[in-house]
User: Fold this.
Amino acid sequence: MMKALLVDQETKRLSVGEWETPVPGPDELLVEVKATALNRADLVQKRGGYPPPPGASPILGLEIAGIVERTGDDITDWQPGDRVFALLPGGGYAEKAVVPAGMAMRIPAGWTFEQAAAVPEVFLTAYLNLFQLGNVKAGQTVLIHAGASGVGTAAIQLAREAGARIFATAGTAEKRAACAALGADATFDYRSGPFADGVLEWTGGNGADLILDFVGAAYWKQNMKALALEGALVLIGTMGGGKVEEVDLLQLMMRRQRVIGSTLRSQTVAQKTELTRKFAEFAMPRLLDGRLKPVIDSVWDAANVNEAHERMEKNENTGKIVLRMNLS
Assistant:
């Protein structure tokens, strides 16, 4: 048995409990978890709104950093004691977790476990939506909503490295300054009013070639107004609702626009393995030399996980909220 942070189904709060220690399969690693990080999906899952994929651990936590404890029988390129960070379908809020070896990455020398834990979910999400789905190109304009969030801070950096021009939205002056420091060319306070006119003015009336949106229904009309000819809107969240009452299909057709729905967690291990490989090729050299960096808002001990969740629920964080898995 191992210790893990488990959800009380009545109060929706987390506390330390015991859970069966996972057993690695032939192509998996058993990792002693040193750190994990919070994601919006954790907040939704603990309230019953985002169940894990079939076969995945029901324990919260979509990313980890730690030390390989055991390797599956078919593994030849990992050894016990190796430092690893990885995306997970679930199970990160625990002392140990099983990781498909193809989704594991080596922690750069000199990095802490807290730094490494702040990378997988947000950077892989941003890479998937910018590069594989959004097909971002140098010189294009990218509108990134929630620019100071974990995914937002990763997306700004990746879009910058791709040579794109970046327009980011954020709700406070401090968060907008953080976006600018990461590479956003322009920022907008979404609380001051509609953002579409600002995007159109900044782009000379052309609009954004690619929009990454976490909000959903509440931003639909503004997004479509801000979207350029042949542009793509990638929906990666529904914080502002999941149902749009009216959709102008004629506009989509005449302007040859694309609307793409995206989730990372539900993809297959094979898909996430290939995504990890492509991300590592592009990003690891940049992570090693500092062109890309995890943005950490705060680091919390496991005993204070509920306070950490409250910080995210209140939208107080800029970048990632990290949890040390010091459960003993």
Notes: Residues 72 and 172 are 47 Å apart (CA to CA). The chain is about 30% helix and 25% strand.
